[in-house]
Structure of Putative 60S ribosome biogenesis protein Sqt1:
Amino acid sequence: MSTEDHHDEEDMQVLNEDDAAEEIINEDGDLVMDSDEDIFLQNDSIAYFDEPKDSLFTIAQHPVQPSIVAVGGSAGQEDDAPGAGWVIDTSSAPSKPVLPASFASNPAAQPEEGFPLQSVYNLDGHTDSINSLCFTFPKGEVLVSGGLDGRIRAWTVEANPGSPIKVSPLGETQEVEEVNWIAPCPSPENPNTVAFGANDGSVWVYTIDPSDPSNPFQIVQSYFLHTASCTAGAWSPDGQMLVTVSEESSLYVWDVWGAAAAKGLVGDNGMSIIAMTGEDQRFEVEGGLYSVAVDPKGTFIAAGGAGGAIKIVSMPRLSGAAAGGKGGKSGADSAGGQILASLHAQSDGVESLSIVLASTTPPTLLLAAGSVDGSICVFDATRQFAVRRNIVGAHEEHSVVKVEFIKDSWTLTSCGMDGVVRRWDLRGTTTAGTTAADSGLIKEWKGHRGDGEGGGILGFVQGQTGERIITAGDDGVSLVFEA
């Protein structure tokens, strides 16, 4: 018999026929899992959308009809899987009834599934993942998507109360290899305008004409001063200026509509009002900048980056600014650009920033920062950016992906790679707490897989009031939670 035949015979005799039905006794007394045993996974959602087959990277909410939401991501696990997106209407999701006391004592008695949502429209045409979405201001007439394929695609949206939603393809354009982010311009004088930043550092501003399918994209401006990937952007509250940051630690404030130029406030490069780079050691953030926000009063910029660094920079001040306005430089005008503070209360990258003018007398200006180290730090801008609340482990050891204040309130919503949405009350003066409850935790919602196993939450929307929170999950599911 050959050696090869000998091994084949041994392999065939690994399991003895008499042993096939042998019962294995656990002599150590450990319990053997019963396959019929129920495993309860907490799901606090009132509705779900599970049509996507892979991660959802981005989510956007209609500015007039908040029940209308768009989500986007990858269509599948394959390397060449195209990007995909969906428009859903969450208004059909019924509110969760108050559960009887017996349910509280027996969680397994709760309904296993919420209300299933269906796609109103599928967003096709991208050849790689959709990683950014927005509805244009002020009426949400256009839905815009950006992808890792460098494409910008647009759809017209008709959303009238009492009528079915109508979504129609409008067109596409491509100027770059990858789109990193898209932000709608809030200027009422310049409707249906968006800005986006790319992996090559370029920044683009388009106005989209929903009435002209033959040529809907009109380039307003394009900027090329960043020398590395443009990682984030934010408009000033009036939509006159655009702030962008890059992973090479630069920050620019762009004079998109010429209001600063009319007052003689544009810098030597002829394009930006403020130009700050890592060459200035006071501004340098080793590892780059990855998040940016402008306060509701338009007085300062917060730029967050690697290592927990946050730079606070004064915004330009344009008295009576109007797009295309003329007139000389006023005594109240200022080019801004002063470094007001350098904050460093967290140990890892600042991925998300949110600023609110909370209702007090006088009003309190709060800045919240979410970090990769799992913490949320809240600074009081009215007290020289003193730390008001440092929530260490807000999402345990998992990254905080997004923080967002409910408008004009002390209430902050956050999500993380732990797959949990949490809401915080930031009133009071506690600077730190040993537990989430000590730090102002009001409520939390679970339902995504989380725990760093591809089930984190990569974004959420909550409207103006925060009554409903809708998520985009890395597990390919969008959930609707009710406050």
